[in-house]
Amino acid sequence: MNTVTTPARAGSAAAAGPGSAPAASPAALSCPPAGLPAATAPAATTPAGLVGNTPLLWVGEPFADPGRGFWAKLEGANPGGIKDRTALHMVRAARGRGELAPGARIVESTSGTLGLGLALAGVTYGHPVTVVTDPGLEPMMGGLLAAHGAEVHVVERPHPVGGWQRARRDRVAELVAAHPGSWCPDQYNNPDNAAAYRTLAYELVAQLGRIDALVVSVGTGGHSAGVGSVLRGFFPALKVVGVDTTGSTIFGQPAAPRLMRGLGSSIHPRNVAYDLFDEVHWVAADEAVWAARRLARCHYATGGWSVGAVALTARWLAATLPAEARIAAVFPDGPQRYASTVFSDPYCREHGLLRSAPPHRPQVIAHPGERTVTSWTRCAAVADPLAGPAAGAGRTGGGAPDAPTGTAAGAGAPRTGVRR
Ligand SMILES: Cc1ncc(COP(=O)(O)O)c(C=O)c1O
Fold first, then answer.
1. Whether the predicted model's global pTM rises above the 0.70 cut
2. Between 373 and 5, the higher pLDDT residue
3. Which of 84, 260, 306 gets mutated to test ligand 1 (max ligand atoms within 8 A of its CB)?
């Protein structure tokens, strides 16, 4: 069982991970010569083979209450992060369908993690990669993307209505039009994004045997949809808790400027599987910072905005459910890229993020339109804000710079998987 209860990393057999390139695909990388002795440690013939089979770490005291805790799935153990899984899968599927021709350019909007995955897919399958991002990208992340061969475009100003995300997606559409034959994965609406995470769910089942609750962050909705739907099939009573950031529109709150990257959105991605969620938690940036920093000091394994927000929520869930409940929480990446934000005292001071511990339990609202939330809050009424007038009724606030008010999901964006 690939689980650990202390930070010492357990060995994992990674060679058969979901990223293993199929032999029939013309990969850009060559294989080692035949006849070498079999490796005894985790080994792979391509970097894509190192994706998946990530470890689990028990997070109990002192982060959690005495006798309570949860299992953290450490997706930061992938070469780039959780999005290695979906980048490889979306590219493989598009190549299989003939939407992405050998050697054609991949162009995508990303806040960073998918960019690293696409760079990995580009190296693996031999595609040039262009990523479009915004000035919030950490300098280190920009450097890493370029080092791994990606061309990085940074949009200079937000779209007046659709915010940074709309501005990025508009630039993607321009770049796709300018490069005949190029292909945009459209992670926000491409069903292959969610399907890519089935392997993560199977790993959790093999590692934990029984799972009573799943805590997942939501950005494009990909990993929550993929992992949650498979686990619900195994465990029909599974409780699925979604974690978003304050100021995000995904679950029906009005848009507001957001510091947190990865989770949250200013559009309504169609990959979000609203039916799966029993409840959603909105977490504020200072609360996520507190949790990520405390995790680092107490348990060594940590990450950034989404890891902090997920951990805070999972800790509360562990204190709330019966002690024997088995809770899995997905940590999408590790801490490295957050050295200049979450783990930087000057940055956190400048943004008012250094505070004492957040409350032990969230506030509660009955439905997303009840009020605009600005700190950790939960809501058990989860619905697609675009599904009907009732879903967003009674909303307050809005009008923030990143607000997509009146913007349909995906408006102005390239169509899923369409090669131009
Ligand atoms: C660090 C991080 N956490 C969480 C998420 C949200 O994952 P998803 O897009 O699968 O909803 C992302 C997405 O980019 C991410 O990069």
1. yes
2. 373
3. 306
